[in-house]
Amino acid sequence: MTFFPSSSVFFQVVINGILLGCMYGIAAIGLSLIFGTMRIIFLAQGAVMILAAYCIYWLVTLTPIDPLFGFLLILPVFLGFGWLMYKGFFQRVAKAGENPSLLLAFGLMVLLQQLMSMIWTADVRAVKTTYAMSSIPLGDINISISRLIVAVVALIATGLVFLFLKKTMLGKAVRGASEDMGTAALLGISPIRVSAATFAIGIALAGVAGVATCITYPFDPYFGFLFSLKALIAVAFGGLGSVGGALLGGIILGLLESLSAYLISPGWADAVAYAAFLLILILRPEGLLGRRTIEKA
Amino acid sequence: MAKHLLEIENVDIFYGDAQAIWDVSFHVDKKKIIALVGANGAGKSTLLQAISSVVHPTKGEIRFDGKSLVNLKPEDVVTLGISHVPEGRRLFSQLTVLENLELGAYPANTRPYLKESLERAFDLFPVLKDRIHQHAGTLSGGEQQMLAIARALMARPVLLMFDEPSLGLSPIFVSRLFETIQTLNEDGMTILLVEQNVHQTLEIADYAYVLQTGTLKMEGQPEKLLSDSAFQHAFLGMIG
């Protein structure tokens, strides 16, 4: 270990990277699902995350409820929120093609940012938990409890989405429609229904990622855009259309950031992440784990 | 009760400003094999897409069992009993054989029969049963065509439409494909077959319509068409 003073420091950096990456991963799964059926990068993903973070901020400030229950609360609320958002805005706009949907997502992001700064001001907020500072010692290294919670939630969320896509008829329809919407429609699968379902799930995952954010980081209304970008990079790493790939892409990104922050300097973490993003797009546009699209006979 | 199972009346279809179909009328009767033949770009696929409501005619009427299809969505047409095997098979290549078949039975009115329909599909194409958990993209061309047909049958159609099913298949598979179509027809299925493979199509068809650059040029029983010199000249490469 030439670069690390000891192997325990190395493991500490790696574990922090994995835990950070899990958070990117949850957001990336949502982004990848929405891209699958709607063919747009949902730019407002980060703003939706921060909205969930503020909801938890209120919950914790106004009630004695622990932010952990926020996961259970946010999931159904944001599922409904996502469904309404699709029905109210995107369903109509989607008919006009992908670019109007992309613009709508951008507008939605700005709207949410402004609304949040009106309601909660642009000040940086943090959700205080009793376990914010505690960690589990594991030999020489410490694992932050809040980050561990985030990792566990990320794995559960990934598992649930995976089960939905593999085991339910609607989930299989979502996968089929992501591959070929036109053929799915010929089989009786309503494009509106699968799009609404994936959108709702994508928004719910953004909500879950938001809860995860607020127990690990301070945030302000504009913090989310950075997260949208990070989720996009994670998707590019993992390759579109794979749930496991999106989570793994997030973890790779987290590792990259955490290692470069330690080895170079914290200021370089983002630069390294974006540079890797560019390299991936140039050298392996289908993602590290993505399949090359095979021409069908 | 309608006179014909499927009626297409004076249909015009545009892609943007370009007119693809000019005043075409034809009909399909129950339990028949009806062929639409013609060169590439004649508008055969467009007509199938209009029946499936993927494209909508600007003029004319399309009725199935007396019910107009013109203002429906593709996902509603299949629930009425029309299945469409699209050109190029269009399987979900990253889904397994079983998942492709399951999605074939997606409509609420066919889902309760999923198990029964699966058994029937495997009776018809036993090889699919051996490949049940394989990704559809890993199948051979012939197997993919079987899966595409089996998937369309999962919706328990009354009318089965094929768009260029023999395209890209080896001669042995093409013969088997036409045998399969005949078997399905003998079991009571109405077939609307779009093909460029005129010879083999006319061997099994009860009646054929000939399209040329978006208009209906000829129609008739296969024997009649095969003896028509204009038809021979245009499609069979004979100088009449």
Protein architecture, described:
The complex is a heterodimer of chains A (297) and B (240). Chain A has 297 residues and is mainly alpha-helical. Chain A has one domain: ABC transporter involved in vitamin B12 uptake, BtuC (Orthogonal Bundle), CATH 1.10.3470. Chain A contains eleven helices and two strands. In chain A, strands 1-2 form a two-stranded antiparallel ribbon. In chain A, strand 1 and strand 2 form a beta hairpin. Chain B has 240 residues and is of the alpha/beta class. In chain B, the strands form two sheets. A six-stranded mixed beta sheet of chain B has the order 6-7-8-3-9-10, sandwiched between helices. A four-stranded antiparallel beta sheet of chain B has the order 2-1-4-5, covered by helices on one side. Chain B is globular, with a radius of gyration of 18 Å. Chain B starts with 5 loop residues before the first strand and ends in a 5-residue tail after the last helix. The A-B interface holds A 169, 172-173, 175-176, 179-180, 182-191, 241, 291, 294, 296-297 and B 52, 54, 73-76, 78-79, 84, 86, 88-95, 99-100, 102-104, 106-107, 110-111, 137, 141, 144, 151, 155, 168.
Throw out a few tags for this protein:
heterodimer, A: 297 residues, mainly alpha, ABC transporter involved in vitamin B12 uptake, BtuC, two-stranded antiparallel ribbon, 11 helices, B: Rossmann fold, 2 domains, 6-stranded mixed β-sheet, 10 helices, 35% helix, globular
Short structural description:
Chain A is an all-alpha fold.
Task: Outline the fold blueprint.
The complex is a heterodimer of chains A (297) and B (240).
Chain A: H1 7-38, H2 45-62, H3 67-94, H4 98-120, E1 135-138, E2 141-144, H5 145-167, H6 169-179, H7 181-186, H8 191-216, H9 223-238, H10 243-263, H11 269-283
Antiparallel strand pairs in A: 1-2
Helix pairs in contact in A: 1-5, 1-6, 1-8, 1-9, 1-10, 2-3, 2-4, 2-8, 2-9, 3-4, 3-8, 5-6, 5-8, 6-8, 9-10, 9-11, 10-11
Chain B: E1 6-15, E2 18-28, E3 33-38, H1 44-51, E4 59-64, E5 67-68, H2 74-77, E6 82-85, H3 97-104, H4 114-124, H5 126-130, H6 141-153, E7 159-163, H7 171-186, E8 190-195, H8 198-204, E9 207-212, E10 215-220, H9 222-226, H10 229-235
Parallel strand pairs in B: 3-8, 3-9, 6-7, 7-8
Antiparallel strand pairs in B: 1-2, 1-4, 4-5, 9-10
